[in-house]
Recover the amino acids of this structure.
């Protein structure tokens, strides 16, 4: 009887850092749910850096909200994603799903930043543009890009097969200072730097 009661008593989890909690609350997508799933996935490990990205998309006249939380610890990259789903039952209740994934830092294969710079002729050193796309790869999803191979002879019409590359892009987030604010862009850049340094050690 004693072992059953001790097993049912859940060990309290360490609270999330205040700045991560504020970012989740500011995103406004079911913050209690999102906070709980991130907290459970972290399992008490301290957060080194984080990124919270909320996005709204339009799908066949339906508005769908998504939130992605990336939390970096000393040993893992924790990814949490939550979004709306359509309930097919007659009651049509609101549904949200929240999924977490924990990736060892040793498995993270790459951190890619694409900077979008308007009017590059007026670029100010150190500004890094007003928009980035952050792409992370750890091998769960791979993309093969194939193009017809060619040779240097412009009159050649022979079949040279295909050439291409394999890229890993398990998650890709677009962050714009104009849409989400300069602070959101700086937080994304800071997170990318921390993660890049962590996998480079």
């Amino acid at each position: 009887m004693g072992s059953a009661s001790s097993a049912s008593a859940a060990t309290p989890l360490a609270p999330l850092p205040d700045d991560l909690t504020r970012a989740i609350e500011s995103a406004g997508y079911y913050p209690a749910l999102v906070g709980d799933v991130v907290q459970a996935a972290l399992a008490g490990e301290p957060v080194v850096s984080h990124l919270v990205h909320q996005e709204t998309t339009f799908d066949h006249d339906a508005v769908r909200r998504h939130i992605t939380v990336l939390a970096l610890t000393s040993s893992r990259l924790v990814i949490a994603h939550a979004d709306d789903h359509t309930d097919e039952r007659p009651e049509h209740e609101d549904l949200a799903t929240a999924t977490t994934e924990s990736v060892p830092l040793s498995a993270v294969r790459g951190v890619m930043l694409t900077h979008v710079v308007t009017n590059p002729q007026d670029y100010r050193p150190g500004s890094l543009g007003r928009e980035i796309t952050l792409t992370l790869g750890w091998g769960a999803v791979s993309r093969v890009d194939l193009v017809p191979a060619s040779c240097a002879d412009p009159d050649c019409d022979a079949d040279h097969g295909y050439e291409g590359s394999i890229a890993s892009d398990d998650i890709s987030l677009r962050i714009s200072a104009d849409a989400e604010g300069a602070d959101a862009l700086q937080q994304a850049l800071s997170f990318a730097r921390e993660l890049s340094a962590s996998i480079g050690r």
User: Anything to note?
Assistant: Residues 133 and 174 are 4 Å apart (CA to CA).
